[in-house]
Design a protein that fits this description.
Layout lengths: L2 E2 L2 E2 L1 E6 L2 E6 L4 E3 L13 E3 L5 H4 L2 H10 L6 E5 L3 H15 L6 E5 L5 E4 L2 E7 L7 E12 L8 H9 L5 E11 L5 H5 L2 H5 L2 E5 L9 H6 L5 H6 L8 E5 L1 E2 L4 H11 L2 H4 L2 E3 L6
Parallel strand pairs: 3-15, 5-6, 6-7, 7-8, 12-13, 13-14, 14-16
Antiparallel strand pairs: 1-2, 3-4, 4-5, 9-10, 10-11, 11-12
The structure holds zinc ion.
Length: 275
């Protein structure tokens, strides 16, 4: 299981086939193209868009959780998908003769959903062939109030004993997920560029598909990543969603050969499911 700066991230992501990125520590997953067995255990799924390889597993997720007596899952979905999403569940309820209980939360760029007391999800617009959004998950950190910065520690401790509020909460981008997106959409998003950990789709790796063709279908090409390598401020980056045309050893070889060292040191490829 890849360790991204101290956070375990697992799953599978093969362009056009299936994507499901699981973060056990946050009790969630991003997308469920086919719903891997392990993803059943994640009570929340944040969906980026409605392409089949990202959402096709949702009914299986809801149904299997119900069968196992687990709590109804929560699905964050783009506003654009609400009507068809509900129609899909209506059809599956009819076909399966079951309730498929779940909570669905429509959410769009800039809106917020609290995943827990200390973690907030905020979508951002991802340019793709379909309405799509990535997500930044912000954690809360407590920082000393600016006006107290000059005081000696004993003084701050005294104020604290007197019940004064000596810290204030600040949001820190802990994890960002691009979903399917052109690179420009990811790099213009402050939270994604600065997130401690970034899960980035890099569908195309060489000239078997040109940068222009990659952009036309709303995906990231490695050439663009190399060109804009300096803009990534992330501590750890997971490359995902490689096209099925690449083999695992080929992916590693291309990344080794092409990525600037400053980026190669921080990048891991997610190779689950590749030959
Ligand atoms: Zn897509």
């Amino acid at each position: 299981m890849p360790d991204l700066a101290g956070l375990e991230v697992e799953g599978v992501s093969i362009g056009g086939i299936e994507t499901c990125i699981e973060v056990p520590g946050y009790r969630l997953a991003f997308d469920a193209g086919r719903c891997p067995h392990t993803a059943i255990q994640r009570p929340t799924i944040l969906f980026t868009h409605a392409h089949l390889d990202h959402m096709g597993g949702v009914a299986a997720h809801a149904g299997t959780r119900a069968l196992l007596g687990q709590k109804p899952p929560t699905y964050l979905i783009p506003h654009e998908n609400v009507e068809a999403f509900d129609a899909l569940f209506a059809a599956w309820r009819d076909l399966d003769g079951s309730d498929l209980p779940h909570v669905r939360i429509p959410i769009g760029p800039g809106e917020e959903h609290a995943l827990s007391k200390s973690l907030v999800a905020v979508p951002f617009r991802a340019p793709h062939r379909a309405p799509a959004q990535g997500y930044v998950l912000y954690g809360m950190r407590h920082k000393l109030r600016d006006e107290l910065a000059e005081l000696p520690p004993q003084e701050i401790a005294r104020l604290k004993r007197e019940g004064r509020e000596v810290t204030h909460a600040v949001r820190v981008p802990e994890l960002a997920f691009s979903g399917d997106s052109r690179l420009a959409g990811v790099l213009r998003e402050d939270g994604a560029r600065k997130a401690r950990r970034l899960v980035l789709e890099v569908t195309f790796l060489d000239d078997r598909v040109s940068v222009e063709a990659s952009r036309a279908v709303g995906h990231v090409h490695l050439d663009e990543v190399c060109e804009r390598a300096d803009e990534f401020e992330n501590e750890a980056i997971l490359f995902t969603h490689f096209s099925a045309r690449y083999r695992a050893d080929e992916i590693v070889r291309i990344l080794d050969a092409r990525l600037p060292q400053s980026l190669r040191d921080r990048v891991q490829p997610l190779l689950t499911g590749f030959r």
